[in-house]
Amino acid sequence: MPEGDTVWRACKRLDQALGGQELLRTDFRVPALATTDLSGRTVLEVVPRGKHLLMRISGGLTLHSHFRMDGSWHLYRPGERWRGGPDHQVRAVLETASWIAVGYRLPVLELVETDAEESVVGHLGPDLLSPSFDRAQAIANIEAQPERTISEALLDQRNLAGIGNFYRVEVCFLLGLHPWRPVSSVDVPAAVDLSRRLMKANLRNGTQVSTGIDKPGQRTWVFERAGKPCRRCRSTIQFDTIGSPPRERVTHWCPTCQPATEDVGADTR
């Protein structure tokens, strides 16, 4: 699932291409918006909120979208061949004089009043990539449930918005935290600060890197490296699922660098 930095970069590209431009044609291929026509309106700005995209349009409207697992927005020049997938996966087409934005496989696509944006993103905690990120609130949100695992707490968008599986797994490794460690035994400020630092660094990289080495096969410490040797100690990277359906997530960890302690409980994986 795309994480906050990926969404931030997508919003920046869309904003640079569409911001201040008049929509010449719109085509929505979801039942709720099938008869909607935004042609003649102007795209004011495209902004991220956690993993959500908010495209603000003149007349007090916001087009809200979310990538979830495999959604995406692609930009094409008029006449350029679309390459984001087959036609039946297109959910939205927004055309200006210079660009065509095509939304593929968007599981969330809805039009709301700009004044009512909180109805779709108001549940989110502080956005890690926002210049006005409320660090104290994010820490307080996580610490409010001390018995919860740090993995689940970091992934909960109501605590802080933007973190996905990549950052959660890598932050736990870098801080030496077993994935099932309870929040009560974790330096929460350190986890929040490292998460934000990694995400902000990757805004510049354009890729998700936690090792400092932006080369294929060398970008992560443990994420998606199950069965491979730990880069630090050569122990075999483990994996399992954490959380309850439908919010289960695959987690990876090094049993030596992230040892289970008595705080983790009987199930140490």
UniProtKB/TrEMBL annotation:
It holds the Pfam family Fapy_DNA_glyco. Its EC number is 4.2.99.18. Residues 2-161 form the Formamidopyrimidine-DNA glycosylase catalytic domain. Residues 221-259 form the FPG-type domain. One of its GO terms (biological process) is base-excision repair. Keywords: DNA damage, DNA repair, DNA-binding, Glycosidase, Hydrolase, Lyase, Metal-binding, Multifunctional enzyme, Zinc, Zinc-finger. The keyword Manganese does not apply. Coiled coil: none annotated. Gene3D superfamilies: 1.10.8.50, MutM-like, N-terminal (3.20.190.10). PROSITE patterns: FPG_CAT, ZF_FPG_2. SUPFAM superfamilies: Glucocorticoid receptor-like (DNA-binding domain), N-terminal domain of MutM-like DNA repair proteins, S13-like H2TH domain. It comes from the Bacteria. GO terms for molecular function: class I DNA-(apurinic or apyrimidinic site) endonuclease activity; damaged DNA binding; oxidized pyrimidine nucleobase lesion DNA N-glycosylase activity; zinc ion binding. It is an enzyme of class 4 (lyase). Belongs to the FPG family. PANTHER family: ENDONUCLEASE 8. This is DNA-(apurinic or apyrimidinic site) lyase. The lineage of its organism: Bacteria, Bacillati, Actinomycetota, Actinomycetes, Propionibacteriales.
